[in-house]
Amino acid sequence: MNVPELLDDVETRLVKKLRLSRLKNKIVGKGYITGLRALVAFLNIPKPTIFMSKGASIRLCETISQFGLNRALIVTDAMLHKIGVLDNILAELDKQGMAYSLFTEVEPDPTFDVVEAGLRQYRRDDCDCVLAIGGGSSIDAAKVVALAATNEVEPAELVGILKGKKPSAPFFAIPTTAGTGSEATIGAVISDKETHKKELVIDTKIVPLVAALDPDLMKGLPAPITAATGLDALTHLVEAYLSGMANAESDYYARSGIQMIFENLPKACKQGSVVKAREKMALASYYGGLTINIAGLGYVHAFAHQLGAKFRIPHGESNAKVLPHVLEFNKGCCEGRMAELARMLGLGQKGDSESRLAQAFIDAVRKLIEQVGIDPKVKQLSPRDFNPIIAAAFKEANSTYAVPKYMSFEDAEKVLLGLAG
Ligand SMILES: NC(=O)c1ccc[n+]([C@@H]2O[C@H](COP(=O)([O-])OP(=O)(O)OC[C@H]3O[C@@H](n4cnc5c(N)ncnc54)[C@H](O)[C@@H]3O)[C@@H](O)[C@H]2O)c1
Ligand SMILES: [Fe+2]
Q: Is 8-42+221-419 a domain of CATH 1.20.1090.10?
């Protein structure tokens, strides 16, 4: 352990021993969030032009070809290429006479190595724009390639807030999962190869110019990925609804998105799922991205990121596992907000108290997670893992999210005990 780490460790032990962790989180967290609010007030966060429904990805190709660009770097993963999800899109680009270079090396939770390889190919093939086709992993990798390309920096130098000085290369996105909402967000998540720790590039310049929500591309998405990604979208919407930075606009997206997910996720997980359910899931996911831009996330993501990195659990699945526990923790301070969601979903009985309605909402979330087949436990998790997970989750939450209520170590231990197998 080096000296700063040692000091950190001593401080953490002292704060824990004196049971000051909630107070410390509150002071540090509120300080950061005040700064963040001030920053957000001056940010112009763009929204992409959206094409929706069947054929949306084809319309996006027609549009790209009208931008007067020469060659697109297509950032995607090998599986999507292999199973033919790209076929119609590539055929349409050919038809439109739009040249492209295909980069298929993205893997789930992409690392900086992948982004650097994409950037090398962008330069080698003289590309002048980027088209992401895939889940959050492909879209995030593509965002950072596009920003690094014009800024002439190494991708890792873009980690942090607003590190890009110049606009990104023209960037377009076609999501093939309904979960991350990355087609709308100002964030990109890139993992460190050694530690698997997720680093965040936050920049208003990485929002795509145009995105296509095309349910046809999601028809073959296997049920476990549909379930996990759908629960990621639900987590974005719920965390935003309970966030201290929620406003009328984010509330609108959150309420609509949550309703669409409760109505459509079980249908989308069934074999031969109806395209309408996929379409609604894609829209809910996009709404989730819009809410992240306004209201941010919360403790669910803070814990899920650590658990996902440590135990290699897909992002949406780890969110699904953590979500009910953080809702139980938040219930006391967010009863009214949770009761509103319960009423919207037609839960509970007439005359039920806010507390009962809030519980009905949490129970409905648990039931949805069970219905779509997600194991609520993290079997590998043991109490000796708790301290580093809690420290990292607190650090992430305090510096990034306007959580409605701050946790103590004991609260966090309770969340993790509930998750352990
Ligand atoms: N930028 C953001 O705002 C944001 C928000 C949340 C999460 N994320 C990040 O996004 C990543 C997760 O993205 P994801 O959950 O969309 O998954 P993903 O992109 O990692 O893809 C998961 C798997 O699904 C497969 N797949 C994707 N679309 C398919 C389709 N239509 N048919 C068949 N298989 C398909 C992929 O090949 C891959 O194997 C994580 O790294 C997470 O941290 C980013
Ligand atoms: Fe997420």
A: yes
